[in-house]
Amino acid sequence: MRRTLKRRALPVVALSLAGLACRPGPQAQGPPAIPVKIEVARSVSVDDSSEYVATLKSRGSAAIMPQVEGHITRIFVRSGARIAAGEPLMQIDPAKQQATVNSQEDTRAARGAALQFARQQFGRVEGLFRSGVASQQDLDQARTALDASEADLHSVEAQVREQQAQLRYYRVTAPAAGIVGDIPVRVGDRVTVGTLLTTVDSPGIMEAYLSVPVERAAQLKPGLPVRILDSTGNVLAESHVTFISPQVDDQTQTVLVKAGIANPTGALRPAQFIRARLVWGTRDGPVVPVLAVSRISGQYFAFVAEQEKDGLVARQRPVKVGEIVGNDYVVLEGIKEGDRVIVSGTQFLRDGVPVSPQT
């Protein structure tokens, strides 16, 4: 009897175990979504521009060189001094030239006396001619002598004026108001017409000299905007293209472009190297925050939140960026307007990871 009960209990236990085995267990779940901050890429008006290193040159900068040779006897100014137009800068020894002027003036006095005698002689001959004592030939000879004396005097007077004008060159004066530059010469130095005495820089309009690659020469045209930038990218001055060279530099294969720059405060200096941004045109393009872009092995990347069937996931995209406008990169390729760009927590993301927007 007991054997029969045991045998009947075995199938019941087996069915119970089979039922437990068939029950569905807890399903495996994916990684939790990472909370991130998301911004929608917006389109703004941006400049299509190129930056170059420009050289500043003053349109009011004058290199002072003597027009005569001699020894410097006096220097009236010092470097950095502000001077007015016509103010004396240096004195070159005029003794030799002064002697030449004195000699010419003595010659002029002698020619004046000779002219006076010729006039008196002509008057006498003319009176004798009217009285019938002197001949026509005598009168013609007296008139010729008078004309020759007048011509000699005019010639000597012209030479005196020339030598006097040359004498004024021995005092070097400022051609315009401005600031005296470096003075490389000293009292006692002998200078020639090729010696640089100093420079005088007048504040005001300067010119930026840009060398633009010949590949972009076809896009150049007068009036293109030019912006002068400081080391941090701030705009110091606004200008436009005023000159385009018709020739190409055979050494650098570039085209010279000039732009006038106002410099009322004197913050910019001649021969200074400075950044210049040449604006080719304006277009609409998407921008993304700088924090959203990372650089890996020279390539720029950004994460974009894309909607999939299970929710938002992060997708890494290679992007090509342009200049920085404020706190944003201008995106040239890889992101379009309306894309949801992830701007926080990008260091914890990888491609395909679920994300959720932070509130």
Structure at a glance:
The chain is built from three helices and 22 strands. With 359 residues, it is α+β, with helices and mostly antiparallel strands. It has four domains: 34-45 and 284-357, conserved putative lor/sdh protein from methanococcus maripaludis s2 fold (Beta Barrel); 51-60 and 201-283, Efflux pump adaptor protein, beta barrel domain (Elongation Factor Tu (Ef-tu), domain 3); 70-90 and 171-200, OB fold (Dihydrolipoamide Acetyltransferase, E2P) (Beta Barrel), CATH 2.40.50.100; 94-169, Orthogonal Bundle (Helix Hairpins), CATH 1.10.287.
Q: What features would you describe in this structure?
A:
With 359 residues, the chain is an alpha+beta fold. It has four domains: 34-45 and 284-357, Beta Barrel (conserved putative lor/sdh protein from methanococcus maripaludis s2 fold), CATH 2.40.420.20; 51-60 and 201-283, Elongation Factor Tu (Ef-tu), domain 3; 70-90 and 171-200, OB fold (Dihydrolipoamide Acetyltransferase, E2P) (Beta Barrel); 94-169, Helix Hairpins (Orthogonal Bundle), CATH 1.10.287. It is built from three helices and 22 strands. The chain has helices at 2-22, 95-131, 136-168, and strands at residues 34-36, 38-40, 42-58, 61-64, 70-75, 82-83, 88-92, 171-173, 178-180, 190-191, 198-201, 206-213, 225-229, 235-248, 254-261, 273-289, 293-296, 299-308, 311-325, 328-333, 340-342, 355-357. The strands form five sheets. It has a six-stranded antiparallel β-barrel. It is rod-shaped.
Task: Provide the fold topology.
Elements: H1 2-22, E1 34-36, E2 38-40, E3 42-58, E4 61-64, E5 70-75, E6 82-83, E7 88-92, H2 95-131, H3 136-168, E8 171-173, E9 178-180, E10 190-191, E11 198-201, E12 206-213, E13 225-229, E14 235-248, E15 254-261, E16 273-289, E17 293-296, E18 299-308, E19 311-325, E20 328-333, E21 340-342, E22 355-357
Parallel strand pairs: 1-22
Antiparallel strand pairs: 2-21, 3-12, 3-16, 4-11, 5-7, 5-10, 6-9, 7-8, 9-11, 12-15, 13-14, 13-16, 14-15, 16-20, 17-18, 18-19, 19-20
